[in-house]
Amino acid sequence: MTTASIAALTVWLVVSVGSLWIWLPTRPSSKPLLARTATLVTVLVVAAVATGVVALVANLGEPVQAGARWAVATVAAAAALLTGGAVTSCVLDLADASSRRTGVRVRRTVLRGGAWIGALERLGVVASLLAGWPEGLAVILAVKGLARYPELRTSQSTGAAERFIIGTFASIGWASVCAGVAWIFW
């Protein structure tokens, strides 16, 4: 592994840990939406730029040796896990902000265990894609959808189904990006 690759992976890991440190205090809903969203958008932009720089360095450099792939996979999984919560929260906050223009306030339902399920989902997506088994995404989505179906069916007017879809797409999209960057290194 080259020095540039090691430096890029280190920066990616530091940005991921830093985004978790910044994102966690914004989770309580006592803060105004605008204050949370500004912080989350900042985390999202920094994470996206750092991930793009890492992908660029990986693309310009030579592929890592087979023995170093575990390090790349570990950093990609950490980036998906640690930054994915902030990315998903930012997308959901932006979706909530755009839906409030109508003047009608709908009490949003927060599905129990969503943060943990999202974290496990992102780890599963990264593991599935890096293992060369993209069909695993279908399995993950099917398990998640079937497990949440009864809860989503009973909360028809709360926007929970829409938040579930938006959050799932944001979470899986981010995990796929992280796995894709690891593939570029390989």
Describe this structure in words.
This protein is an all-alpha fold and 186 residues long. The protein has one domain. Helix content is 77%, strand content 0%. It is globular and about 55 Å long.
Largest sheet: none
Characterize the overall form.
Answer: globular
Q: Care to count the β-strands?
A: 0
Percent of residues in β-strands: under 5%
- Secondary structure: helix percent: over 70%
Overall mean pLDDT: 86
- Low-pLDDT windows of residues: none
Q: Compute the number of structural domains.
A: 1
Order of helices and strands: HHHHHH
For the record, give the distance between the C-alpha atoms at the N and C termini, rounded to a whole number.
Answer: 11 Å
Structural class computed from helices and strand pairing: mainly alpha
Determine Rg (CA atoms, Å).
Answer: 17 Å
The DSSP helix count reads: 6
